[in-house]
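In this supplementary section we document a worked example of the pipeline. Step one takes a protein sequence of length 406 as its only input; no multiple sequence alignment statistics are reported here. Step two produces a three-dimensional model, which step three serialises into structure tokens for compact storage. The input and output of this example are shown verbatim.
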Amino acid sequence: MDSLITAAARALATGDLLGALKRVALREDAPALALRGIAMAQLGELDRAKLLLKRAERAFGPKEVVSRARCVVAQAEIALVSRDLGWPAKTLAAARATLAARGDMLNAAHAGHLQIRRLVLIGRLGEAEQALADLDPRPFPPASRAAHELVIAGIAMRRLHTATARAALARARQAARYALIPGLRAEVENASRLLDQPAARRIAQGEERLMLLEDVEALFATDMLVVDACRYVVRQGETRVSLATRPVLFALARALAEAWPGDVTRDVLVRQAFRAKEADESHRARLRVEIGRLRQEIGAFADIVSTRQGFALVPQHGLETTVLAPPVDEEHAVVLAFLADGESWSSSALAMALDTSQRTVQRALDGLAAAGKAQPYGGGRACRWVAPPPTGFTTSLLLPGPLPGS
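The serialised model returned by step three reads:
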């Protein structure tokens, strides 16, 4: 490796992107192409970066397997940043195995972090935690230790373990300070701010208030009956019933919980659960059937009684009832929460992350676009969707994970 390549690599490692490009901008050899691709990726020119890294991978000879594997890892990171969740995970796993077998443990660990971040993004927290436990961060340089702690904090926030998240972010902040990379320090600070922004609303007896993640964690630690409209779950202590695949039942549960300790008229329940403007006898008959199904689902911790006007929720042992809702009411709130991370998403990647059909996601995106809350660019398979993040709110920390058995 010549002196210019060495100097460019050192400049990249310290965040001096322009300094790195000055040294290799006019070169077409494989190492220079790889360094140019990494620099362009960090500057946000992802399409150009992908092209350069593919050229570098082809330019490295068949005996330079470590360099080729490093190019694959860099392409995988670009795919993750650009939300190309369909990028072949097996290719990254093979590159990681090659790097580990050839002694490049640092880049092998980086590939492992990319695998874990992808699992977190699509809600596979259990698999992410298992993979994270296999990584030993002690030999990592400061930049890699900061990335490791950011992954720990991300999982902890989604698990509602806020003390663990704060401790991990403190370690990440210290490691980022030693790394001397401004972009890394900014990423740590952005992650830290999520803990100080409203993550949900609590609705009880006609009143609403915003809640931080710490408040949500404390709420779940009580014996209160909670209808969780962020994760589509009815829960009381450690007992929980998922209604994610039964939207009618969840709509009824939320309406009854919001009215607690009062009742809800049959006409209101019909409008909220069935979206009918006026209730007729067929709607009322269906309502009785669905109320019976809901009573059976949540019978472990609540009953539903008939009143003169409609129905009322009666928790066991006289427990208090509350509703946990997203910070902002939106018909397509789940899709909007993913778009609000500031990255560009394809409809196929959103469908994979939400574990739903691409057609359902496309209808939601069209609705958001019509309301001016999402914007597409590009065409065909290259179409991507973006949306500005809602100011002052966290986004996807309380989204439901994959459905059981999916």
